[in-house]
Write a structure and sequence with these properties.
The chain is an alpha/beta fold. The protein has a nine-stranded mixed β-sheet with strand order 1-2-17-16-7-6-3-4-5, with helices on both faces. The chain has a four-stranded parallel β-sheet with strand order 11-12-10-15. Strands 8-9 form a two-stranded antiparallel sheet. Strand 6, helix 10 (200-213) and strand 7 form a beta-alpha-beta unit. Helix 6 (111-125) crosses helix 27, helix 11 (248-269) packs across helix 12 (285-294) and helix 18 runs antiparallel to helix 19. The radius of gyration is 31 Å and the shape is globular. Residues 684-693 have low confidence and may be disordered.
């Protein structure tokens, strides 16, 4: 087309199709913004009240009781609908409030709907109520950086992912100075209540803020948030109050969709092992849900590894009259061997490809790594205290640090003084890759904790796996199985008798669909020697081309593609489950505020059931992270299907296709699979999933 025939850029940009294509508004966004989450039955009432729920019992830590005397005895309560309360109740419920809200920590899909639910409930009770958002997390409280939350602002973010409306941050109100500045901000704004949306640290921090502000009559309400799924609250008897924090379902589904695509790619290209690290530094809930969603060939669950016991090592130590403490818990080397075993077994049936899911914090469950971290933390802390300096400043290079550790081991060996770092530690430490040594010796965070998130977990494991696979390849254990029909066709095409060559080449020619080259044949040279020994060819003859072709196809190449799933999932637009969950949490928050409660966290019970059976409760703010329960139904199911999903047998893999998050469709699952399965432990049965309207 000639230039003179082209439409001018001015006219082109005015074309409706161009405007539509270039707009940041699409049909999915329109559908999301106009979607109105259903309300739990109790919120369809004109008013709500809270009633004590004595069903739940807690063991209260003595120190926590001492530090939070005014809120620690708060009881679990349930919300009840009310249509015709007394006039005094109506006045208190419908008074003009000023409510602040802040996001804390990493984003989690659904956060905007917490604001939407709170806004809708508060404005319905009194249109003059103000909702103030603190910008960039708790720094916004400390520095009094705010934004007025209005109807148009809320409408533009309904059912959308991220914390974009008011942003987020990782600051904590953890000093007297910050606490004083926060009180000053809250009082200057005339806040009646402050809502903190965050994880376990943020909500625990909020509990102390609630205690601090109680004399100022400023309420503090928490909302549980984390994609890691490690906020799961149970009472002393194991009864569930909060089975899942919001954002988990969306992140898991986003990861699962991407990893499912890799399963499809892997089984199409048949040459890559995709190594998928998913977020979850402390607990493996995301990895477990992804396993159920995708049926990846191998999924590591850290909590399972920590329970491992090496009975052979224990028996060996008993015979020697010693105790081998390293027999308790999976070692890094053993774990790499477990992975190798799965890879080798799949290769034997022609599947030199697959998908492995690894939780981000898996190394935190490895026995020897924990020992190294504890010892190195102690060594670094003692050095800093003794020398009144900084270990990392005095030993900036890795070799400097290693030399210091060698000196400690030498002192212990020579008996000059007791040292926490002994010769065995030094030998084991020197066996691991340089980059991982550097990671273990990196500077600790402000709380003295080891920063697992900065360690390339997947590289640590895969380097060990590759090293051991090379050993297995050299001793003839790691080979790709050759389908017998392909072998026969290849030889017959060139006029060779496959039944003559079969027993010479393969160790299992007569009884397997996939044939494995003999362990002694590991190179073209050893293949020629085998053929010469069997009198098939002379020293001067070449290996028959079809035979060499079959051998080359049996030689495995372990090629990996590394993937990390974290920020993409936590920034995803929420599933319908998370939209509904968070909107109702926002409604619940206002109920707590209207009733005058403080030091509480909004929760919804029965999330594992159909939406119609969700129940509203409130609980204390002090939280601990919850790990995967290896006795839970969800884990036991994954464990039971490990062999099937590994698919180390002829035939197709067992991959599951969860598909993308289909917000506007009718086939989207309405709750996490782990919740559905874990409900079986509690109730013996669970309702089937309902279709999304």
């Amino acid at each position: 087309m000639k230039d003179k025939d082209l439409i001018s850029i001015e006219d082109l940009l005015k074309n409706p199709e161009v405007e539509k294509a270039a707009s940041n508004i699409n049909q999915e966004l329109i559908e999301r913004r106009k979607y109105i989450p259903p309300k739990c039955d109790v919120f369809t009432s004109s008013y709500t009240v809270l009633k004590d729920n004595d069903e739940f019992k807690f063991s209260i830590d003595r120190e926590v009781r001492k530090q939070l005397p005014d809120i620690i005895n708060n009881k679990v309560q349930s919300i009840v609908g009310l249509e015709s309360p007394e006039e005094s109740f109506k006045q208190r419920y419908g008074k003009k409030y000023t409510i602040g809200i802040v996001f804390s920590g990493g984003p989690a899909p659904g956060g905007h709907n917490v604001i939407a639910g709170l806004y809708d409930a508060a404005k319905k009770a009194n249109s003059e109520t103000r909702i103030i958002g603190f910008i960039l997390g708790q720094d916004g409280i400390i520095e009094n950086e705010t934004i007025e939350i209005t109807g148009p602002l809320v409408d533009s973010y309904r059912n959308l992912g991220g914390f974009t409306m008011i942003k987020t941050g990782r600051a904590k109100i953890d000093t007297k100075e910050k606490m004083a500045l926060s009180r000053e901000t809250c009082k200057s704004l005339g806040l009646d209540a402050l809502v903190i949306v965050g994880g376990d640290d943020s909500n625990t921090n909020a509990a102390f803020l609630a205690q601090e502000l109680i004399q100022d009559r400023i309420q503090v309400i928490g909302v549980p948030k984390t994609i890691d799924g490690d906020i799961q609250v149970r009472d002393a008897q194991g009864k569930v109050l909060c089975s899942m924090s919001f954002g988990f379902h969306t992140a898991a589904r986003a990861f699962a969709n991407a990893i499912s695509n890799l399963c499809t790619d892997s089984s199409s290209d048949v040459k890559y092992w995709h190594i998928c690290k998913v977020m979850g530094r402390v607990a493996s809930h995301l990895a477990l849900e992804v396993a159920l969603q995708t049926h990846a060939n191998m999924t590591l669950v850290g909590e399972d590894l920590s329970d491992y016991i090496d009975h052979e090592r224990i028996q060996k130590a008993e015979k020697q009259g010693t105790v081998d403490y390293h027999a308790y818990g999976m070692t890094l080397r053993h774990l790499s061997r477990v992975i190798c075993d799965g890879i080798v077994r799949r290769a034997a049936v022609g599947k030199n490809f697959g998908v492995i899911v690894i939780p981000e914090g898996v190394l935190e469950f490895i026995n020897e790594i924990q020992i190294f971290i504890l010892k190195l933390n102690t060594i670094i802390a003692e050095y800093n205290q003794t020398h009144d300096t900084n270990f990392h400043d005095d030993f900036p290079a890795l070799e400097d640090k290693l030399e210091y550790l060698r000196r400690l081991a030498r002192f212990e060996r020579e008996g000059a003084s007791f040292s926490i770092w002994n010769t065995r530690d030094d030998e084991l430490f020197n066996d691991i890759p340089d980059f991982f040594q550097e990671g273990l010796l990196m500077e600790r965070d402000s709380h003295g904790n080891f920063q697992f998130s900065q360690v390339k977990t997947e590289k640590v494991l895969m380097d060990l796996v590759k090293d051991y696979l090379n050993i297995l390849k050299e001793n003839g254990t790691y080979k790709i199985g050759i389908e017998k029909s392909y072998y026969r066709k290849t030889l017959e095409k060139k006029g060779l008798d496959p039944d003559y060559f079969g027993p010479i080449l393969f160790k299992n020619y007569d009884n397997s669909e996939f044939c494995l080259i003999k362990a002694s044949i590991i190179s073209a040279k050893t293949l020629k020697q085998e053929l010469e020994k069997e009198g098939v060819i002379s020293k001067d003859e070449k290996i028959p081309a079809p035979v060499e072709k079959i051998f080359q196809k049996s030689v495995p190449k372990f090629i990996t593609q590394i993937h990390f799933y974290g920020y993409d999932g936590r920034g995803n637009d929420p599933t319908r489950f998370d939209c509904n969950y968070t909107y109702n949490l926002g409604l619940k928050v206002f109920s707590l505020i209207a009733k005058g409660y403080t030091g509480q966290m909004a929760a919804i019970m029965n999330l594992e059931k159909d939406f119609s059976k969700w129940e509203k409760g409130k609980l204390a703010l002090v939280l601990e992270k919850s790990l995967v329960d290896v006795n839970s139904a969800s884990f036991r199911v994954v464990k039971a299907f490990r062999e099937k999903w590994l698919a180390a047998a002829p035939g197709e893999d067992s991959y599951r296709r969860p598909g993308p998050i289909r917000f506007a469709g009718k086939s989207e699952e309405d709750r996490p699979i782990t919740l559905v399965l874990n409900a079986l432990d509690n109730a013996g049965e669970v309702e089937p999933e309902r279709e999304t309207p």
